[in-house]
């Protein structure tokens, strides 16, 4: 089926589109529930609670039930989450919806690249990861941008973007249902715990810092922008901080894993400074430019460089090592955001942004030094190994 990869890419885009569909309405849900930034961050982190069980304990599920049922289940979960937000818009419902979205994304992520490679055939495996990365990155950012577009027409708890996601996801369900499932099911071990090969933890900490920045933009920036009457534009900042990273991935692929990651760690605190200043001062252009620059690090240089390095260090344990990499990434996506939300409620948004920026800068310096030291040690050991051989 020549169009099968495109059908799968469409489905993956719809699964991830639902994840940040509600992002521009976070502050509205908080107002309805009488809560602040910390409660919003906790509801936002329900997504991670859904992803982690799949990441930690269900690594072998795709081998047992097949690839296609995983994608179908993920689409259904994305639709359930959207229906929940249409029926009962609140911060509590948001936490539950994001739990379903996390489960769905985890199921899709566990099999997407392998399934895409199988649909492309023996010569398509190098392109499979690129297709999956492009479709999911586009979806993650596009959902928030679509909702912001509909909200520009006027405030609503049930914007048209929600109905559009349901319609397109239903179309995707039909298309995926007709896809082949080339790989036969087999009884493999369900539990595949993450692992950290020597030298990989620093790359995991780099993506933790990067995705902490992304989480802050999605969860907390709408409330800060509202102080300047710009909350309707928060979806575009989410789109910029996620999807624009695609533009920098070809450049990241031309660099070594170490250089790409170090470049990302250099860009990240600088871009955050521009973004945070723009949010605090109410300068939308600075927010969007900072978000694009941060995206180059978060979904370009650090993401691709770190993942490639971990896979290279992993040897035969690539699946478990990748799970370890994403475990740290999703911890960064949740815990720092909750902590910053607590600071924002107690000390104000400006102080919260400053503290987060200080920790981010310190973290980037320390992780960068650790990566350089690790590379120097590996280079020093390499000649010794050659002499012994």
UniProtKB/TrEMBL annotation:
Keywords: Membrane, Transmembrane, Transmembrane helix
Membrane topology per record: Multi-pass membrane protein
Keyword Nucleotide-binding among UniProt keywords: no
Membrane-crossing residue ranges in chain numbering: 38-58, 70-89, 95-116, 128-150, 162-180, 201-224, 230-248, 260-279, 285-309, 321-339, 351-373
Major facilitator superfamily (MFS) profile domain ranges (all copies): 1-389
Subcellular location: Membrane
UniProt xrefs under SUPFAM superfamilies: MFS general substrate transporter
PANTHER family documented for this protein: MFS TRANSPORTER (PTHR23521:SF3), TRANSPORTER MFS SUPERFAMILY (PTHR23521)
Identification of the protein by name: MFS transporter
Organism: Pseudomonas kermanshahensis
């Amino acid at each position: 089926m020549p169009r099968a990869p495109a059908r799968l890419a469409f489905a993956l885009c719809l699964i991830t589109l639902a994840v940040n569909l509600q992002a521009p309405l976070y502050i509205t849900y908080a107002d309805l529930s009488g809560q602040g930034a910390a409660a919003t961050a906790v509801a936002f982190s329900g997504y991670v609670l859904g992803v982690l069980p799949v990441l930690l304990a269900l690594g072998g599920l795709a081998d047992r039930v097949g690839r296609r049922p995983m994608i179908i289940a993920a689409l259904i979960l994305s639709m359930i989450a959207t229906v929940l937000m249409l029926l009962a818009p609140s911060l509590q419902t948001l936490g539950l919806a994001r739990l379903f979205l996390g489960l769905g994304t985890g199921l899709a992520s566990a099999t997407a690249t392998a399934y895409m490679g199988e649909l492309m055939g023996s010569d398509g495996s190098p392109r499979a990861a690129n297709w999956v990365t492009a479709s999911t990155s586009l979806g993650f950012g596009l959902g928030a941008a679509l909702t912001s577009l509909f909200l520009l027409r006027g405030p609503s708890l049930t914007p048209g973007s929600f109905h559009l996601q349901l319609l397109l996801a239903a179309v995707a369900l039909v298309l995926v249902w007709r896809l082949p499932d080339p790989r036969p099911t087999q009884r493999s071990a369900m539990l595949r715990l993450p692992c950290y090969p020597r030298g990989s933890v620093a790359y995991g900490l780099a993506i933790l810092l990067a995705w902490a920045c992304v989480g802050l933009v999605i969860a907390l920036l709408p409330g800060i922008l509202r102080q300047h009457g710009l909350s309707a534009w928060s979806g575009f900042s989410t789109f910029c901080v996620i999807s624009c990273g695609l533009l920098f991935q070809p450049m990241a692929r031309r660099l070594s894993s170490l250089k790409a990651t170090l470049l990302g760690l250099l860009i990240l605190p600088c871009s955050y400074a521009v973004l945070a200043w723009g949010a605090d001062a109410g300068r939308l252009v600075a927010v969007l430019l900072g978000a694009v620059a941060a995206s180059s690090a978060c979904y370009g240089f650090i993401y691709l460089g770190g993942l490639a390095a971990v896979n290279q260090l992993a040897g035969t344990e690539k699946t478990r090592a990748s799970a370890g990499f994403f475990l740290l990434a999703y911890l960064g996506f949740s815990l720092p955001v909750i902590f910053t939300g607590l600071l924002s409620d107690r000390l104000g948004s400006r102080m919260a942004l400053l503290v987060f920026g200080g920790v981010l800068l310190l973290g980037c310096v320390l992780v960068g030094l650790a990566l350089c030291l690790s590379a120097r040690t590996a280079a020093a050991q390499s000649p010794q190994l050659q002499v012994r051989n």
